Protein 1
Amino acid sequence: MRLACMSLALAASLTTIAPARAQSELEDAWSGADLGSARQLFAQAQSAEAEGRWAEARAKLDTVAAIKRTAVVLYHLGVCEQQLGRPRDALNRFEQSLALARTQPHAQVLRLAAAKIATTMQRVPRAALDIEPPLPGTMVLLDGKPLAEGAREVRLNPDQPSTLEVRAPGRKPFIRVILLPEAAYERVRVDLQPDEGPARRSAAATGSPPVGTWIAGATALGLGASGLTTFLVSTALEARGSAPCDPERYVCRSAEAAEDLREAGRLRSVSLGLGIATAAAMGVGVTLWVIDSRKRGLDSTEPSTPLRSIVLEVRPHGAALVGRF
């Protein structure tokens, strides 16, 4: 309660004393329409602060700061962020305000901003980064925004998730969501794992199929050719066995026709079995290819055995694809 009263008192003192100085800063920075718009927005922001409409005040002050950043405007932005429950953002604003107040100069903002920094710093949770290995060119991002080069500590808003991302040349990005309570401190170990790179991963993914896939493919081709041949033979036998007698030639092959039909049925079953076996062999080949591609994506140091030649051999009861490795 005492801290809240002190904060309101500091804000009130700035509100009652700062307008004249703030107006002078605006006049030095702008002219014409920009000056009138900025002065009007700043006055509206002060009214919103006085009535506790902190989000509205911050939005108006952001517009003013986009035109010209002054120590007074940044200080008021810090007060708004603090009242909206974002002490990290408020601390950043107070620090920016203090830095500008030293160059402008502005003794009142120097005093008030320094006091705000001392009290707000105690509320802000922090995460220290232990980055291994420490590499030149390492970049730290918090919620998508890069931090200063060499930053090894991040400040957070309490009880609000933030996304930490660490990038380094030749390493996989380290991404982690951090959520800490007020005033907490945590050490985060960042292990930067080697990245194979898109070219190497692409080469591993698009390499030639493994030997098992070639064997399974050749087997599928041979089975498919045999199944097709068997099917054609069974169709011919079925047509011959179903032909009627020829009365002009006094030929009637009832016994032989029945045998042809039985043989056609047997061959049709064999053809169906070969078709199923062909599909199974193709499935095995695809599965082996997928497994090999994933394995090479993890470790592509061992190249696949090259295929030296592949020959289609026609046999009495079908065809076969023969590969030499």
Note: The first strand starts at residue 126 and ends at 132.
Protein 2
Amino acid sequence: MIDLPMVAKLEAGAKVASLFLVGEVSKLSGKTGKPYLTVQLSDNSGQLEGKVWDDVDRLFGLLKPGSAIRAEVDVNSYRGALQLVVRSVEVLPWTPELKARLLAVGGGDPDALWARLLELLEGLKDRPLGTFLRDFITDPALEKRFRSAPAGKLIHHAYLGGLLEHTVSMMELARLLGEHYNRLTPGLVNVDLLLGGTLLHDVGKTVEYDEEQGLDFSTEGRLLGHIAIGVSMLAAWQGPSRPAPAVMQRLMHLVLSHHGDLDKGSPVRPQTPEAMLLHLIDMLDSQMGAVT
């Protein structure tokens, strides 16, 4: 398996069999009406666009985003870029070796990122809230998943460790922007609450993605989604540092509303300054993560 060529080593004119992670797949029609597929194929060395011209319907059923495949491809040059023409596909079960080869890993140091996350929590003025957030996030099983989970499947921070990178980046922005708006309008933003919501907004992604199946959704993730999962995790948590019901309600609102609009997946729209700012920070960091 390890002798098969990596994406970064492919050269125009080659006909190879290799291993790929399937990304976004689209079924289109050519000028004559004949269907074809475009598919993003990658490993941890890079990504290329693939085309499927023949046996389209069958291969469309096999090429599922997030799956691992062995494919025979022709490597062509098209408009100055490499393009793969897919000839055959075999779907593979995920193994540790495949995960190491196909899944990208974030560039940040996870230990340093985790230390910074805890440092930001230590800086909260509301110590009972800070204690709860630390107790919640440092549960050993949750901490392990939080440090390794992706923040997305295809669009932004879609790699192992992406959730931690995305969250810490957002917490830095939340602290800076919350303090900025409080200088303009004193008392407008509860910065501690905003930081808590930022930490928790995507915590459901620790369950939504099944890392044993690459970056695919878990059954719970497909059925419920990370927002519902995150709120249920908060509702179920019991411990001496659990905040008062009114505080927990505001934290849950931040999780529920962070996508902003109902048609974007939020069950409710942002109703507080902290919720609106969290939504905008999430959108900013997600979009910047998609272009880096």
Note: The two ends are 30 Å apart (CA to CA).
Protein 3
Amino acid sequence: MEFVNTIDKFGVRHEERSQSVNAALTDFGSEHSFDEAAAIFARHYHFKISDSTIRRVTESAGRVGEQFIKNKLEGHQKAEEKGSLSEAPLEKIFLGFDGCSIRTGVLEKIESGTPSTPEIDISPLEVPDHSAGRTPSGRIKCRRTENWRDIRLGFAKNGPEKDSKKWFIGGMRSFPDLMGDLFALSLGLGMHENTKPVATSDGGIGLYEGLYQTFCDLQFILDSFHFKEHLFETAKDLGYKNGDEKIWVTVRYKLAWEGEVKLLLKELRKEHRSTQNEKIRVLIGYVKRFSDCICYGSYKEKGYPIGSGEIESSHKYITQKRLKLAGACWRPENINPMLTLRIIKANNWWDEFLKYSIDLVA
């Protein structure tokens, strides 16, 4: 009888899994909760793997994915420096950026004598810690400290159309880091020194400034819906109702649409002098800050998007579909690896990533 060397033929060692199995586990684990992923895997492959194993494999793959994306972005930058980018130079590049909040939780041991509600039991440590409180069964008492953390997502695309080539970056990281990634992503799509960057987003603190510091000759467009929201909030605070608030908003929005921002500010200042309304004072500052970003009529004529719905909807199917499941609470260090896998899929880099990942075993 001829014995088969499983390492040479299948790439499998004793008590390990093949790369194709690990790829499937990662695929399911990045799309569904880990217990649901285990059930789906059992249905497809007719044998069981625990949800904890799927968690380990998926998180391990996510960390490999972080390095994979880092290498790709560094490759775009090096190619640009050498003048060897493969994509045709773009006349314009379109950017989107937005954030959402994900619930995180960190377990902390409860010392003896400390109020212990709410509590969570975990398995005993390998080395007993007698200073910590314990349950009657000997398990260490822990308290979960929960927090909501900002997750940011951005994209670059080579045209305004829905079917334009679009790549994403994102993570629970600082604006400067993510802006650097967005810039490198744009280089990979064909941005060069004469490309006109056009970004449509809300006016989040740090976002507007970060984009301007990163992209030369940027045209930032304040999401028209958010601008209208500010106008409506002000109208209601002034006491307009029964349809009058819509008239108040329409008149002032039309001034912005037609590029009459100076006239809009003049009207708002005049109204502030007569009412001393705090909301109008805030609105004046808002309009001044975005005075070059709300001339919506001219943007529409150029074919630029005036709404940020595309990036906001991207959060739903990239970030929230997996990271915001009902009752989900993530350890902070696992958020970026999981989001990385979601981004790799959204960018259609999955097959390339699997080739890059020689071994996904946790």
Note: The radius of gyration is 26 Å.
